[in-house]
Structures are given as structure tokens and as C-alpha cells.
């Protein structure tokens, strides 16, 4: 029989002690105080549990994984991770939960109730804890501190996740392959490898992705968005990782160090290539393969000095590649697919790198700066070629006469003197030229209306109105 009745709310109690504790809900009385921090509580059991924060005592241990807790109720909730027990069920949709508070929060989805409102911005929340967490965005408060590295967090859950970096704890295990993860979100993402699920679809090209973050990054190919900007030089990037790598140009940071010789690199790919020197893997140098810098910038960037195992084969032509992405790019030669579209002029490209280089025509961006003279370039290959002016390096030598050139294109043009090759032919008069610019100059004769006699140079095709100007010009060839 409940003989002790509360006059405030009518609730009844069998024991007087429970009745007294309950009345403190209405009176707000908190007679039990913590000697360490002065915080007060309505029950003695609450102050005992609270004091464990100061003492570090965690007397409640999980029989499944050995994890310890300062409060018994927290242990009970934790054990439901192992048992899978979800005793709290929603009457609306029958979804079940391991914690009562999770059910209460969930039910507000059906009711739409958001009773907790932020006084700063007016945003409303269905749960008070969410409001408290949100308010820290305004105050900047980060009350949860890691004792290992002193890093601070605005939410306790973020601290718990962070601490697993130090402890190595990986409580979220994949049932398919046994791989364990620090965060539940990592496990969910990983499981899509087994299911093959790719729920995030690009509406532009139809490509699908396993993660929303991958889709967001991919969509920047179509939009041209580059939200990550370097504060040093203003260059922008579509991905944060690319900005991080780029910033090492300015900082000189080289975090990837070779354990054999101590040499450091700004990129992990540079370290991997370097380490093959020590492992004595087969290498090729530019001299050994008689290769030189290609005028095509993107090919220069992708050149591999150290070859890898080529396990990806093109069914069309039999060419093999060491990276699957390179095979995909190559196959567009056969299909003619050009999925990367310039939003300014509508021109399309087979590779995103080609689109990025092309867009600099519209933006005027010239991110590659020569430190010798300050001249800037839109492509890295143009900077490399230009630097030969300062170094005097002329690696491209003519086998016929020994003349050397700083560019491969210069050597090719020169060799036509020896071979007599004239690949550039005028469609109007069938005259041929060894250089494209000579053909362009020649074609002006046909395009322009001749109001007076024109004198054309036989060597390069350039035309002059005055014969004296032609004679002076011809001295350049002799």
C-alpha cells in the first residue's frame, strides 16, 4: 500500500525515504554536496556517482569486453551493444531502441515537437542536450578535454571517439570479414564494400558512390567548384587533401621520411618511388628510355619513372596499366567519352585534369611561378620548359649535327632541316611548310584582300608589302 502521497502531483510511495527524495523534485532541494567542486545533488547516490569523476574510479566492468564504467546504469546500457537488446519500442513505427531516452527523442520525429529553442539564433531542437551542444557553436566552449593530448571537444561523444586514437580501441566489428573500426560510421561505410551498395547517384552523369562525401567531391567536376583555397597564393582546390599537399610547397613540410637513408618527401608517392632504390626494384631513367619532357602537360605529370606491376588490361588494344583509374581514362580513347564539361564554353574533356588546365584560359589563373624571374604559367610543363632559359639546360640533342635544344619540340622542328619534311600543307595552293606557324603566316596571303603587291618569304611563308622589308626579314634566316 502506497501510504505516502505527494500533494504536488499525487504520486504515491510505499517508503517514506522515496517520498522524501521525490519531494525534492518540486522543492529543488539539493542537500548533498561534492567536497571537490561544490556541485549539489538531490540524492546521496548521485553525489557518490559524481565523485568518481574526480577519483577516476570505475567499479562496473563489462563481462564481454572488459570496459569499465563509473555508473551501473551506464554499464547496463553499454551491454546492450553486445546482447543486441532493444527493450524500448515506438508505438508508431515499431522501431526499437536500447535506451529510453533514444525512444523519447525518436518519438519527436512523429510529433514534430521541438521544445528547446536557441536564444541566439532561434533554432529549435527536440532534445535539450542537442540545444546545449548547439549553443557551443555560439560560445566556442569545448568543455571535454583529452588527458593524453590536451585536445578539447564540444561534445562528450566526440571526446570518447577521439580517445580511441590513443587507446587503439575499435569496438565496431564487421560481421563479414572481422575488420574492426573506431567509429560506427566507418563500419557502415566499410560494409558497403561487401554489399556493393552505392546509394549516392550523380544526376549529371549517372555515376554512383558508396559515400555521400565521394559524391560531393565528384560533383565538383561538373560544377567547377573549388572551395579549398590556399591563403599563401590564392590557388583553390576541389578536395581538402589536394590543398594540404599543395601547402607543403609553401611550408616546405616533408612528413614522409625514408627509414633507410633519412631522405624526406612532401608526398607519400614520392617516398614509395624513392624506397625502390633501396629494394633494388627495376627502375628506368629518362636517359635510359630515351624519353624527354612531353609537350603535353598532363602526360608529364603522370609519367612514372619507376614502373609498377601492370595488372589492368584494355580489351580493345591490349595495353596494360598498373592503376585501374588509368585504364578507365585510357578506355575513353576508344569510346570517345568526355564526361568533364566546361561550364563557361561547353567544351568537354576525357580527364578532369584536362578540364582544370582548360579552365585557366577563362580564369586567367597562372599558379606556377618561376622563382628566378617571377614569370608565371598556367601549366607545370610550361614552367619546367621555361626554367631551361635560366639553367641553360639543353637535353635534346640532334644526332645529325649535334645542335642541342631546351625543348623536344625545338629538336623535332630542327630535324626537318635534315629530313626535308614539311608536314604543314596549305589547302589553297598545296604549298608545304616545316613549321605550323609558317603555314599560318602563309595563309594570311589567301585570307587578306591584296590591295598591293605582296612579297612572301620562301623560308617561313611570312608576307610583306614592301620588298625591302622582305630582304631585311630574310637576314634572320641566313
UniProtKB/TrEMBL annotation:
Q: In which compartments does the protein localize?
A: Nucleus
Mark the transmembrane ranges. Answer: none
Q: Which coarse location class describes where this protein primarily resides?
A: nucleus
Which residue range or ranges hold the C2H2-type domain?
Answer: 4-31, 32-59, 60-87, 88-115, 116-143, 144-171, 172-199, 200-227, 228-255, 256-283, 312-339, 340-367, 368-395, 396-423, 424-451, 455-478
- Give any single GO term for biological process: negative regulation of transcription by RNA polymerase II
Specify whether Zinc is a keyword of the entry. yes
Question: Could you give a GO molecular-function term held by this entry?
Answer: zinc ion binding
Alphabetical list of Pfam families matching this protein: zf-C2H2
Q: Which UniProt keywords apply?
A: DNA-binding, Isopeptide bond, Metal-binding, Nucleus, Repeat, Transcription, Transcription regulation, Ubl conjugation, Zinc, Zinc-finger
GO cellular component: a single term: nucleus
Family of the protein in this entry: Belongs to the krueppel C2H2-type zinc-finger protein family.
Q: What does this protein do?
A: May be involved in transcriptional regulation.
Can you say what this protein is called? ZN189 protein
Amino acid at each position: 500500500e502506497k501510504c505516502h502521497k505527494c500533494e504536488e502531483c499525487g504520486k504515491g510511495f510505499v517508503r517514506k525515504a522515496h517520498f522524501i527524495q521525490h519531494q525534492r523534485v518540486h522543492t529543488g532541494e539539493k542537500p548533498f554536496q561534492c567536497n571537490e567542486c561544490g556541485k549539489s545533488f538531490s540524492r546521496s547516490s548521485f553525489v557518490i556517482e559524481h565523485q568518481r569523476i574526480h577519483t577516476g574510479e570505475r567499479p562496473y566492468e563489462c563481462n564481454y569486453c572488459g570496459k569499465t564504467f563509473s555508473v551501473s546504469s551506464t554499464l547496463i546500457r553499454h551491454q546492450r551493444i553486445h546482447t543486441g537488446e532493444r527493450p524500448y519500442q515506438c508505438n508508431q513505427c515499431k522501431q526499437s531502441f536500447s535506451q529510453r531516452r533514444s525512444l523519447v527523442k525518436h518519438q519527436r520525429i512523429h510529433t514534430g515537437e521541438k521544445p528547446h529553442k536557441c536564444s541566439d539564433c532561434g533554432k529549435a531542437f527536440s532534445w535539450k542536450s542537442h540545444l546545449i551542444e548547439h549553443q557551443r557553436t555560439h560560445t566556442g566552449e569545448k568543455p571535454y578535454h583529452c588527458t593524453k593530448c590536451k585536445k578539447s571537444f564540444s561534445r562528450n561523444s566526440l571526446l570518447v571517439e577521439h580517445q580511441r586514437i590513443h587507446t587503439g580501441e575499435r569496438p565496431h566489428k564487421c560481421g563479414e570479414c572481422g575488420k574492426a573500426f573506431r567509429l560506427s560510421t566507418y563500419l557502415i561505410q566499410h560494409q558497403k564494400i561487401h554489399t556493393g551498395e552505392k546509394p549516392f547517384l550523380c544526376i549529371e552523369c549517372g555515376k554512383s558512390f558508396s559515400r555521400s562525401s565521394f559524391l560531393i567531391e565528384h560533383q565538383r567536376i561538373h560544377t567547377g567548384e573549388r572551395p579549398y583555397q590556399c591563403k599563401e597564393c590564392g590557388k583553390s582546390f576541389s578536395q581538402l587533401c589536394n590543398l594540404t599537399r599543395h601547402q607543403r610547397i609553401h611550408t616546405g613540410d616533408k612528413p614522409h621520411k625514408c627509414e633507410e637513408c633519412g631522405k624526406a618527401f612532401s608526398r607519400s608517392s614520392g617516398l614509395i618511388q624513392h624506397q625502390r632504390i633501396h629494394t633494388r626494384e627495376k627502375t628506368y631513367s629518362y636517359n635510359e628510355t630515351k624519353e624527354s619532357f612531353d609537350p603535353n602537360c598532363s602526360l608529364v605529370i603522370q609519367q612514372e619513372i619507376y614502373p609498377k606491376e601492370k595488372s589492368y588490361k584494355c580489351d580493345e588494344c591490349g595495353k596494360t596499366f598498373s592503376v585501374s583509374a588509368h585504364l578507365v581514362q585510357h578506355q575513353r580513347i576508344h569510346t570517345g567519352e568526355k564526361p568533364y564539361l566546361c561550364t563557361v564554353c561547353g567544351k568537354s574533356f576525357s580527364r578532369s585534369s584536362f578540364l582544370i588546365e582548360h579552365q585557366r584560359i577563362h580564369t586567367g589563373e597562372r599558379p606556377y611561378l618561376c622563382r628566378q624571374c617571377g614569370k608565371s604559367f598556367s601549366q607545370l610543363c610550361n614552367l619546367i620548359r621555361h626554367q631551361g632559359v635560366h639553367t641553360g639546360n639543353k637535353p635534346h640533342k640532334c644526332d645529325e649535327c649535334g645542335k642541342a635544344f631546351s625543348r623536344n619540340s625545338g629538336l623535332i622542328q630542327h630535324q626537318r632541316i635534315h629530313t626535308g619534311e614539311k608536314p604543314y600543307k596549305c589547302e589553297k595552293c598545296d604549298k608545304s611548310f616545316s613549321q605550323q606557324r609558317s603555314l599560318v603566316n602563309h595563309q594570311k596571303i589567301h585570307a587578306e584582300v591584296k590591295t598591293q603587291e605582296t612579297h612572301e618569304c620562301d623560308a617561313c611563308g611570312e608576307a610583306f608589302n614592301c620588298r625591302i622589308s622582305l630582304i631585311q626579314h630574310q637576314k634572320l634566316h641566313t
